[in-house]
């Protein structure tokens, strides 16, 4: 006499559970790696956007003003723009304005001089000389995440 045996054995059930566990582990690992990569790339994109914004601001001021001053103050790059005025009643220079964001660490050089070595404001005369700029922007939490932008600030030399 043969009994009708339908169903799953314990061994088959355990084998199925092991296979599902392996697939779930692989999927979770792939997702985890993807999330970490996305976070790193988002951070790097933010650094690049911040560096591009600073270079754009410097380029605009370089082309617009007769001269300007740059200084490092508490780890931040600041600019004071100046124009030659014919009227002595108008002050030729404004006040220092911060160019950099509080969230990142900034280093670099202008015409080969390190920002950190500046002990006073550095005068930039765009009518007489182009400016070689190297700007490094780093994440203070993960210093390995950083970007470097090398550019030349130019305009028509008139002197």
From TrEMBL:
It is found in: Cell surface. The keyword Acetylation does not apply. GO terms for cellular component: cell surface. GO terms for biological process: establishment of competence for transformation. InterPro entries: N_methyl_site, Pilin-like. The keyword Protein transport does not apply. Keywords: Competence. This is Prepilin-type N-terminal cleavage/methylation domain-containing protein.
């Amino acid at each position: 006499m043969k009994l009708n045996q339908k169903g799953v054995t314990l061994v088959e059930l355990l084998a199925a559970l092991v296979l599902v566990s392996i697939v779930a582990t692989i999927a979770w690992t792939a997702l985890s790696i993807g999330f970490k990569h996305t976070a790193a790339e988002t951070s790097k994109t933010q650094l690049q956007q911040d560096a591009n914004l600073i270079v754009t601001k410097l380029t605009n001021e370089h082309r617009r003003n007769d001269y300007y001053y740059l200084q490092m103050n508490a780890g931040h790059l600041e600019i004071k723009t100046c124009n030659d005025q014919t009227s002595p009643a108008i002050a030729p220079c404004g006040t220092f304005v911060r160019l950099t964001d509080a969230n990142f660490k900034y280093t670099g050089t202008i015409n080969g001089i390190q920002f950190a070595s500046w002990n006073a404001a550095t005068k930039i005369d765009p009518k007489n000389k182009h400016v070689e700029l190297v700007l490094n922007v780093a994440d203070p939490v993960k210093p390995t995440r950083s970007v470097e932008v090398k550019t030349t600030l130019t305009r028509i030399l008139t002197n």
